[in-house]
Amino acid sequence: EHLPLNQVAQSPIQPGLEHCQGWGNNPNRMNFKDLLAKRYGKKRIDYILVYKKSSPQVEKRSTFEKNLRAEGLMLEREPAVTNSDIMFVKIHCPWETLCKYAERMNIRMPFRKKCYYTDWRSKTMGRLLKSWLPRNPMKLDKEALPDLEETDCYTAPFSRARIHHFTINNKDSFFSNSTRSRIVHHMLQRTKYEDGKSKMGINRLLNNGTYEAAFPPHEGSHKSRHPIKTHGAQNHRHLLYERWARWGMWYKYQPLDLIRRYFGEKIGLYFAWLGWYTGMLIPAALVGLFVFLYGLFTMDSSQVSKEICEANETIMCPMCERNCTLQKLNESCIYAKVTHLFDNGGTVFFAIFMAIWATVFLEFWKRRRAVLTYDWDLIDWEDEEEELRPQFEAKYSQVERVNPITGKPEPFQPFPDKLSRLMVSVSGIFFMISLVLTAVFAVVVYRLVAMEQFASFKWYFIKKYWQFATSGTGVCINFMIIMSLNVVYEKVAYLLTDLEHPRTESEWENSFALKMFLFQFVNLNSSIFYIAFFLGRFAGRPGKYNKLFNRWRLEECHPSGCLIDLCLQMGVIMVLKQMWNNFMELGYPLLQNWWSRRKMKRGGQLMEHKISLPQWEKDWNLQPMNLHGLMDEYLEMVLQFGFTTIFVAAFPLAPLLALLNNIIEIRLDAYKFVTQWRRPMPARATDIGIWYGILEGIGVLAVITNAFVIAITSDYIPRFVYAYKYGPCTDQGYRQEKCLKGYVNSSLSVFDLSELGMGYSGYCRYRDYRAPPWSSTPYEFTLQFWHVLAARLAFIIVFEHLVFGIKSFIAYLIPDMPKDLCDRMRREKYLVQEMMYEAELEHLQRERKKNGKQYHHEWP
């Protein structure tokens, strides 16, 4: 009992303390666990190491654990209940060690309540609004999230010399569990296991098989029969499940402070960004729904739809070479009405709105991020100097240079080697992109072959709607190819990133994330780009069609346009992709955990022991967080952001589908983090990393693609030119529905059926602006074609410059940090200096009084 701390920490756990005086003769002796409990109270398990007894790396493990004890950590081994080969090493960090490393890591800790200065007007208005307005049902009550008082405290870097400045009500709860785990992880990363400057760190021991896993334990079960306490220590995992991860909380705001406390700032920022993105989707979804409803309500009154549905005598040219029957224009009446749902007068407005929305979303996220970094004490935090990757050290151990930050020699990658590896990686990226284009070309060939087969199919329904059947089956095949190639892309991205030999883990993650985004973005959107900008553009004309390999005639757009094919492609891929992602995120871990429990029950391991598993073994049986960390989560949402913005002019319901998916996604991710995954190491971060730059790039690309979709894919520009130049209202100078009277007839050219040699006679119509066969220049482009082309090019230029100008102006108007936050930060800095000075002065006065009394008593 009288051993100093370092000797107790270094004492072997098995057997007991035989070296203590009188230990063997004391009949009331205690075992080691009782001794620690008496001296240090109830221990918190801050970290868990897992290894196999059969592992040959005994010496490295022994040296590593010996050095951990020398650093002040307390270790205890315990065998697994369900597997005799598994051993758990429970790590506890005592108070003295916590204080020492908290000071080294400059961890900010609370020392006094915040008192914000507000004038009497703000106070009065706040009280009136609070009393008049009803309670927001989306907000969580304070009673629902107890024990979060320290978020309202001023903080300062911890110092043992000024420990009296900090409000330490309870040593056991002063450092939160996430802070304790972060300190222990910091020590694990910097403890040696062999002699040598690079022979250190738990990551290397995990890579060489010394340990099977290393993770901080959960705080208990996520389910409990006991109600949530309102005072004292509590199970934050159970609190997160009840107030966040349950499906019944889908309409509530997320408890970001509690998420940050339990999982760390990096994961907290992800959920903050995801919640902000979901909230910003609400106005976009409402406007998109309004545009869709406008098209729905005006569908029957649309002049273009009326003319198509009433064209009983207009014969369309055959769409294929063989076995095609002549169809009347009014047979595409349904397609014309459906096209009007997405291609109407609100399309241009919605495209401009979404471009501005993307800018507002990103600019206001920067403000939101600034508030979070202030509330979470990340303003002055900087990334720690990362350790080098073992692969990098092994490759370049012979070449060294002095690190400009640490001043120590470290391995160095020469520039020629780095450049050559980067060129190989870039070549691999272009090869994979060419593979994507090859897959798209294969789908195009399928559509050409299926077009002829469906047009001559025996079933009347398929023969009548052969274009819909061709597009639908093509989309499904394309989706299966996309999901298959994603597996290949991930392996190739791993290979190329490892080939580059990045210096640190963050550099590896950024490089891998960029490759995965490029691969999946091209994979998902290449077929959509083909339908939007190439389908039907190079088909030719009747009698002179262009053919692929001189065999298959190129596909044409439907008489109602190509926009319906684009909508179908986007809708199917977006819905199926999100459903697949949701299954892989939650369904796959659920199946894995269920199978693990089933194997244990089948082996009779739990029935044999008839005891419940300890928490660390339950965590061991959960699924580890994937190697990519949050990359898969960000990648899924960023690709969805691309679907929501890039082709939104063709599919205004995309924001609504994204909103519905994200409401489910937040609870799926929450349930997965709380119940299905081991607790990840609470990491810190100040932003979302490389993904912000990718989102900005998508915003720029969205303006360009929407301009081309409106100008080229939709019929907005041809209708506009006809209404002002060729329609019956040219003298009035404005456009109405009656101004489009005769538009369908103007947009269809005439062809002589006898020139086909298929036994037909008479004339048929096709979509184009060409001269009739009886003119002096038959089948040449008319003047209206050049007017439409010029209007399209002019619209693209004007639209892009206008939207980019508005985006830049809005970005200039919105500051990155709110003004009241700047004032709060300056005031807090001033108050912290004043309070530190007053606390130091009070401490000196108490010391003087104490010394004065002692001197007075010693004088006689």
Automatic annotation (TrEMBL):
Residues 259-828 form the Anoctamin transmembrane domain. Residues 41-256 form the Anoctamin dimerisation domain. Keywords: Cell membrane, Glycoprotein, Membrane, Transmembrane, Transmembrane helix. It is found in: Cell membrane; Membrane. It is a multi-pass membrane protein. The chain crosses the membrane at residues 270-297, 347-365, 422-445, 465-489, 517-540, 637-660, 688-712, 789-814. GO terms for cellular component: plasma membrane. It comes from the Eukaryota. Pfam families: Anoct_dimer (PF16178), Anoctamin (PF04547). One of its GO terms (molecular function) is protein dimerization activity. Belongs to the anoctamin family. PANTHER family: ANOCTAMIN (PTHR12308), ANOCTAMIN-3 (PTHR12308:SF16). This is Anoctamin. The gene is ANO3.
